Amino acid sequence: MRSKAYKAVKEKTSEDAIDIAAAIAFLKEHARTKFDETLEIHLALGVDAGKSEQAVRGNVVLPSGTPKQKRVAVVASDSKKQEDAKAAGAVLVGGEDLIADFEKNGISDIDVVIATPDMMVKLAKVAKILGPKGLMPNPKTGTVTPDVAAAVAELAAGKVAFKMDQQGNVHAALAKASWPADKTEANVRAFIDAVRAVRPATQRGEFIRKIVLKTSMSPAVRVIA
Fold this sequence. Notes:
Elements: H1 4-12, E1 18-19, H2 20-29, E2 38-45, E3 57-61, E4 72-75, H3 79-88, E5 92-94, H4 96-105, E6 112-115, H5 120-123, H6 127-130, H7 148-156, E7 159-163, E8 169-176, H8 181-197, E9 208-215, E10 221-224
Parallel strand pairs: 1-10, 4-5, 4-6
Antiparallel strand pairs: 2-8, 2-9, 3-7, 9-10
Helix pairs in contact: 2-8, 3-7
Family: Belongs to the universal ribosomal protein uL1 family.
GO molecular function: rRNA binding; structural constituent of ribosome
Protein name: Ribosomal protein
């Protein structure tokens, strides 16, 4: 059951796409909850989600930062790299001891796991724990790297990874309703550009079929980009 406030805002929206700046202004104006709502983007892609060669994934550094500070765990065999990662902002660091802890206790309250290449064979034993949570390090998302400290710093600076879901859609949280409109718009445009940049070579027809913006509690607003 939708709230009266939601229905009231829904009545003011249209199926027609509007300019990004206008959509952001509308969503900011109607963000009336007691908490600072998150602004989300959802893109429907014109890909064949059943074909692996048309899978869409990538990453982008958002110019205005992210709405939530990422909690990062780093797995590295070298103690110096562990120390550097900790200094860069990682909340959890370790080597085989950390993998053993994942295996015994699972993993919670972590948004990203980064690993050095030499630890990937050893991480395989906890793939069934990390994989379902989307936490298994992957070279394609920059989470397998010899320079773990730099990877942690990039996340702190606003780097986010994206991956198409089984229906061919891409989702991301890009801002807070309280942010200045220009900073929100910069993130929205940077994200859309990043998705466009990884268009599969075998994809035909319209690549991005639909883009909508919404806040945590609002209806979706379709945008032109």
